[in-house]
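Me: Here is a favour to ask of a fellow structure person. Could you put it straight underneath, so I can go through it closely?

Assistant:
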Amino acid sequence: MMFLRKAEIFVGVSAEVLDRIQAMAEEEQVPEGHVFFRAGEPAAFLYVLKDGQVALTTVGAAPITFPIGEAGAVFGWSALVEPRTYTATCETTMPTTVIRLDGTQLLQMFEDNPQDGLLVLRRLAGVMASRLRASYERFAR
């Protein structure tokens, strides 16, 4: 699980907290077409992509699909953000391996370790902002 040290939102987290994150992590291998979650469902898990690719698809009159295929990228961030409801549907586009993390356990750990929790949430905000910019660029075309 040394892989998590390089995940985009965990870079710089203390060794102690990272060890606790690794202890709760579950590796999951799934086939193409596996649906991790659907928009509107309660958000229970944060995922870190180890290999493969997923597609996040928004709902609405003009759905947008975001492919995620970079090792260390996160998805399912709604598990850490109120109201803890997934905002998109996530499906694999090829055989994929992920690290699954329980959102409730992560939030509790971040409350117990606020400096690391703040760092992770800042990095998560950066991921969210990047994806929002990408969606704006798609609409501008």
